[in-house]
Amino acid sequence: MDAVQSTDPARRTVIRAGAVAAAALAACPRAAAAATTAPRPAAAPPPAAADAADLPLRSDRDSQGDILAGSRKDHACLLFLRFREPVLARRWLRRLLPQISTTEEMARFNAAFSAARTKAGGTDPASLSAQWTGLSLTHAGLGFLAGRDPFPALPAGSTAEAFAQGPAERAEALGDTGDSSPDSWLFGGEGPHRAVHAILNLAADDPRKLAEAVDRHQQALGPAQGVLVFRQDAGTLPGALRGHEHFGFTDGISQPGVRGFNAPDPATGNTVLGKPGARLVPAGEFIVGQEKAGNRPAGLPAWATGGSFQVVRRLAQDVPGWWAQARERLAELKRAGAAPADATDTWLAARLVGRWPGGTPVAGCPLAERPCPAGTGPTAVSYRDDPQGWHTPLFAHIRKGNPRDGLVPALGRPPLDPAVTDGHRIIRRGIPYGPAYDPAQEPGQGTNGASRGLVFIGYQADLVQQFEFVAKQWINEPDFPAGRNPRTGADPVLGPGSPVAFESESEGGSRATTLRFGRFIRTEGALYAFTPSIPVLRELAEGRLEVSLEVHPGTVLRAGDVLDAGAARLTLDADGDLVLLDPSGARRWSAGTAGKGSEAAFSRDGELTVRTADGKAAWSSGTAGHPGARLLVRPGGDAVVLDGDRVLWRAGDGDAG
Question: What is 549-652's CATH number, 3.40.50.2000, 2.90.10.10, 3.40.980.10, 1.20.1300.10?
Fold first, then answer.
């Protein structure tokens, strides 16, 4: 179909973005001046060219590639699998292992592809093609392969508890109610007889190669007594909607940078080179075992080290309904005098998302879409000077999902440092499914009768503090940001239907117009899975799984932190004493630092210490000089520092340490 003749709002706005560049720049004089007068900086060198010692995660051959590098393929297929016989399932896993893609493989290919694309003036290089394979396991799948429960304990409120329960059991708290309730899900809401054990994530540049891979993997299920519970095909939308989701907005623009993987900008030190405004977040927020924000303990078993928790959600989108709602609410705003008389439905839709369809942030150019000026980009988003949400509404999708530098703790107070949100970031790997909506056809006719939406895939090291926190405390919470009257409202794109306060500038300050939004995205399936490291998958293929809690080097325990391994709990008491407790709370061991200790730390050279408030050692395990040593809290009832298999220090079962 000729794009110029299209009347579909989503498609129309995407195509117009390039055609009205001059008018858009005129609408933003400061941006136009920057774009026309500022010299364009030289292209940043690809991160792969950086010193390997500075970016060690780019050469990681243990972690699976989609977590940090991303498959970045136009075609994908997720196979949701269940097995009947553990021995045969482990044999299947052993055969699959050589095909699983690593971070190093994906990072190397992506760097070469990007360089070739740049050299070709933005055209995808036909000579470079790849097919990737990833594997994630549910709580049931881990237990099935290992022949044991993956967790020695499930502390209330922990990620272990969330993972074991799964999103169906937690659906109400996550906003999956009504039409989005698990009763109607295509996967994830079934009973134990249809429980999913594994998710095989396949992606490729060439659809024929992907189809061949899917067929090959499905045939391999027979000898393994595996069952295909559900198959989810997905792919980049064609033509003008390439890189966009079904509503017509560019997707996947703003990802967190990862320390040790993404090159830092030397001018700031805390943002990604070539991506202004994209914060670098500690890698431990995405890969278990790496350094976390604030050096917080992961509190997870050793099998989690090197892996990441994966959230998979099938989100159906009602495209005509969503755009019709935007037109209706815009009419209400105009009647209230809160929108320009010449504003289009795209003007309001951009405020619901926080970006124009082509990706330009509303924060930088509130009047119309424009190309990003030289030296900036779609990641350069700031809300610091927009506390009332006059440019980017406080309820806008990208602002609710990541407040950036505009998180105000209370009215009238300055915004918090963006670093406070590092522990709530998620790496997203979404891809559309279903055909694009065609406005030339009647609703329900032809491809318009097909299901369409987004396959959401998110990676994080903590389900509770990352995905669930963002969903419950930000996206779905009408009172976030808190303390406003009227309340801000839930995210009108992804959240439950709710009224929102559309704030605009007036002579008396800020004027709020209440708009009521329905829900036009429906959850049709959801799963929590874990993407293990290659070494852990090898162990699982032999039926082994290390369930002792691992305290990773660089971790700091503060008063109240508890590492619960069931029969043994390591904690720093409120009085500063590092203690090992049994299930009844009785002490099995004490460092004797009551009244002196302020925090406990496990160093990178293998030493466990309790430090005073001024940083002096109040107690030490005496195990320094062993880089690579591991600190484990074991379900057998003790805590140990190990160098390989050699015990350097041990507490518990009557040992004084």
Answer: 2.90.10.10
